[in-house]
Amino acid sequence: MAPEFIHTYVSVDCVVFGFDSDNKLNILLVQRRSDESPAEMHKKLPGSLIFSNEDVDDAASRVLHELTGIKKMILKQFKCYADPMRASSQNDIKWMDKEYQHNIDRIITVAYLSLCKIDHKINSSKYSNVDWHPIDKIPALPFDHNVIIQESLGEIRRWIDIDFTIIFELLPKKFTIRQLYQLYCALSEKKIDIKNFHKKVSSFSFIIPLDEIEENVSHRAARFYKFDGKAYKKNNSKLIK
Residue ranges of the alpha helices (H) in the chain? Predict the structure, then answer.
């Protein structure tokens, strides 16, 4: 019996994390070009089919550049999604036919996660509507994008356990220890006493105290710090566990 080969396309989808001034994790969603209903289905993860001359990593970099206007961003591939039913809804099928104008039986997508400072100006060359959304208020999305987002959270937590310094890709250049603490807790889901956290962080030579404090805040003004990448490379201290 002959194998049943299918007309398959390969895409990339990107989950871009940010950390806002309310100390909440956010991701970037884009507006899907469609007249479908309900309205929440208009939102989706940024992604694209890969071009014939592209590697999947190159395609993901292109998607991020078209999304943000930033040429170089940290990028991590974490999973391939190939469920035959991932694009089975009529709205998704209709959108694919209109967007790509090809007879697509199935799309296999390679998922990536990336990190972006939320105060960075988003200058998208492809999408007219790009918005940050709190990770705990993500609407129902097309395809399996909600599953991809949920599984990307587990991946970024494993990433932080391996390389703690990626956390600074989400913080502003000047940050307080409380901001660092709240971001670390949000990403790692670890409960750490803030006093012990402050003591531990203060021992790191790559986290530099600045002669600046917060202004116009209702609470006690905190000192600002910065991350020194060069000092980190020379440092052999144990990271937070």
Answer: 56-68, 90-100, 145-162, 177-188, 194-202, 229-234
Tokens of 231: 């000092």
Tokens 């990770």, residue located: 135
Specify the pTM.
Answer: 0.83
| Secondary structure letter of residue 105 according to DSSP | S
Q: Give the helix/strand (H/E) hosting 78.
A: strand 75-81
Contact 166, 74 (CB under 8 A): yes
Exposure b/e, 203-230, CB count within 10 A at least 16 = b = ebebbeeeeeeeeeeeeeeeebbbbbee
The candidate with the shortest Cα–Cα distance to 127, out of 49, 62, 66, is: 66
172: nearest Cα among 221, 215, 217, 120: 120
For the chain, state the CA radius of gyration.
20
Output the tens digit of pLDDT for each of the chain's 241 residues: 456 777 788 999 999 999 887 778 899 999 876 555 544 447 899 999 999 899 999 999 999 999 998 888 889 999 999 998 887 777 776 767 676 666 677 789 999 999 988 877 888 888 888 999 999 899 989 889 999 999 999 999 888 888 888 889 899 889 999 889 988 888 877 778 888 988 888 888 899 999 999 887 777 888 999 999 888 887 654 444 4
DSSP letter, residue 205: T
